[in-house]
Structure formats: C-alpha cells, structure tokens
Design a protein that fits this description.
single chain, 14 strands, 3-stranded antiparallel β-sheet, alpha+beta, Beta-lactamase, 7-stranded antiparallel β-sheet, 12 helices, 317 residues, 18% strand
Length: 317
Amino acid sequence: MNPNDMEAYRKQLSEWKMKTVIVLKGQQLLGEWYESGKDSIGALYSCTKSILSALIGIAIDKGFLNSVEEPITDYLEHPPEISEALSQITIKHLLTMTPGFDWPDFDKPYKAFKAAQDPIKFVFEQPLISEPGTAFAYNSGGSHLLSAILTNAVGMPALSFAKDYLFGPLGFHSARWMERGGINEGGTGLYLYGKDLARIGSLFAKNGRFDNKQLLSSAWVESSTKLHHRGLLQYEPPIYGGYGYHWWHSPESHNGQCDCYFAFGHGGQYLLVAPEHELVIVIRKQVTKRNDAIWSRQLLFEHLIPASIEKKSSSQA
C-alpha cells in the first residue's frame, strides 16, 4: 500500500474500519487519509498512557518531580496500615506496569475501577502479590495513580500542564481529557486530532526537539522508550511487545520490519515511531471486536512500514 496514494485503497481501509492514517518520514508527509475526508478530534483510548509518560518526563525535566525512583507515597494519600508496602513502589514501577498489585490480565479490573467512587482508593485496596519491579501486569489503575502524582507535583491537572508545556508549544488544534475528581484519567480519556498525535511522534523521533526548542529531554525520550520489561513479547498474535515507560517496545526480531516503539489504544489505535527511519505513523480505527485490532497491525507491518523504509539487503548488512 503506497502511503502517497492511500485514497486508491479506500475500499480496503473502509473494510478494515480505519478512520485516520498519517505517515510521516522526517520532515516529509508521505501520506494521509481520513474516512470523513478531513482530520477530526477523536479518542486515543490507551494511547493516552504514552502521552502521560511524556508529561511525567517533562515534570522531571522541569524539577517538579525529582526522578522515577521516588516512592509513590511521597505524592499520594494512602492508608497508613499499608504505608510500608506502598513505599516500596516507585514512579518507575507504575510506568513499567510492575507495581505488584493483583490486577488480572488483560486489565480485567478496569470496569470495577471505572465504577469506583474513589479510583485511587480502589487501586490501593488491591492486594500486593509480587515484589515491585518483577511481574508485568497491564494496569490502567496504576496509570491513574501517575496522573494523580503529576497533579499533586505540579499543582494542576495533567491537561492544564500539557497545554502549558507540550500541547501549546506543539501548536495543537484542540484537546479534551476526561477527569475524575479533578484528576485527568491516567489510562485513557484523552481526545486529540490525528495530526496533533503525529506531532507527538515527531517530537520523539527528533529526540524531544520541536521548532529548535527542546520540549522534552533526549535522555527521557531514550529511557522511556527502551525495553524495561519483556511485557507481552510472547503474546500471539504479536500485537504488543515489550514495555518501556508506558510505551510498547518492538524490535525488528519481533515484528519482522524494524526496531520501533508505539502507543497502542483499544480497538487498534496506534502512534508508532521507528527512530532509525525517522518514521511516524498514526492509525485511528473504529472500535469493533477486540480481535479486529489485528487489522491495524497488518496495515502497519505488512503495508505502510515496508513501503516507507529501505531495508538493507544481505550484501549491505
């Protein structure tokens, strides 16, 4: 599928329930396609997590947070009887989905968490069943704790902080973010235009620089997108990958095309960055059956990436 002429594939893209496809390489827009004919604001679902990770990085860069090694108890009110156990959990453990809470795969407590009157209290009521930093369990509750930590550290909700330090400097068209009790949802709830989401990818592809300004330290870009835990590298079909700081990490040996990292949202939403090729791809898809998310992956790794990168031949390797 040629990114330069995606309209020629409208029938296929429509059958796969695609809504937005944007392909950037360096400074060049290789192609864009919109189901409605133009870009629009839409839900990111769990791609929200990767944007929140960037905001945590900015908060550290600006000195609002000291480091990812700080215990979460420094920022969150918690039951004193479990203070000692919770104090072993750091910001890094939340970012890598390894805090140790009993949170069955794949985010199964999410509905109960969403329905809870006090979502932070709900997370703290879950038993700690593994040593922090060891077991990976995809946990949107932990992401919400990160949003609460950010809010307490910077003195404003995540959306306000983002508008000041990320969305505003990047020139975003608009942004909405659902909130609970003054705290923006950490695991989901962010709504952006497709092109604005692509700007986040470009920022990371350029090691945190935009318009000659360093909005995010290159050290954070590197540390947040590298492999910190094997995560779901063994999952079949290979939709996911290993895990960084709320970014999925997928080496060429895993996906068959290139080293990359990506934000992934429910139903097949993607923001993918392949740094070596300066490639950024945004896919937004209508949410249908869970297994239909594989269509987004097929579009990425069987069509768009192969058409957008020059792979080394065996004689060049």
